[in-house]
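Mods, move this if it's the wrong board.
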Amino acid sequence: MPTREKFRERFSLFKKRFLSNVRKVRPRVTFRVLGAVVIFFPWMIGSFLASLSKLHRWKKVKTCQGFMRRNTLAFEGIDPKSLTIKMISGGVSNSNELWTCKKFTGETVRYFAKIFVEAGSFWAKHLSFVSPFPAIYGGKTHERFTADMVSRVQLESLGIPVPKLIAYDTVEKVMITEFLEGVTVDSILEAIAERGELGPNDEAAIRQSAIGLARVHRAGFSLIDTQPVNCIWVPEEQKVYFTDLEFCSRQDKRSWDVGFFLCYLAARLPENLLKTIRSLFLQSYRQERQIDLAEIDDTSRELIEYLPIFRTILDIRRFTPEELFEGLITT
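Not the wrong board. Structure tokens:
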């Protein structure tokens, strides 16, 4: 089947799941979301158009090679002419790219490129209007970029597993980090749900997600966006890396962090597996830090009616921003 037809089929299935999830949303939640969309629609469209312009520019190899040449010390020994770019799915908040290059010695090197866009800033600024998501102090693109970059350096200095920062552009709000050879914890949860049981490494991945988050909290940070898709399990190191730090702060949102992660477990797993994995996560967290279960339960109760929306977000993150835009127009 041609690539174009495969995409259309994939997007058509996404739309069917989307409509199925919409029908499961409670009227109060639907009214809240639609009301915000109507009120903020002009700004939403403006942010998407600005994002597409920036994405188009950073898809070009020439643009990225120029970045590498401006940051020669970060890419020492790398041949910019060897650069190839592959778009990575991740929804609308940012654009993610895999950069593959060769050293002059012939060795292959891969980097993760994160391009911060206006659509993500619109999303961040208005999430608290449509959901229990905490109000973000500073939702503009440069503020998200700064929070991610500074938090990355601070957490790494404390021994928290985060992808190493390689290079950045404070004007364009672009960040390059090491590319991790691993899988997202969300992919692991999806595989568990399909198999109906935990695989050999699954328990370790869940444990390390909890232990790592507890260490972040013990160090005095809250991540806010603790979706399992933002956690990468690297089997060779037996570690979980936290990749999305643009909302990371010193606010005490630790109960939210745990509750948000647990709600994504509920979005992915059937009831029998959910109880087992939820218990495993909380037990592992307590190895590093005590937790107030009453606060966690309060957060979970707030979030549980948003489960259909969380499932939709997981579906959206299977596409790049440009794929979403194209799919809405052509299918």
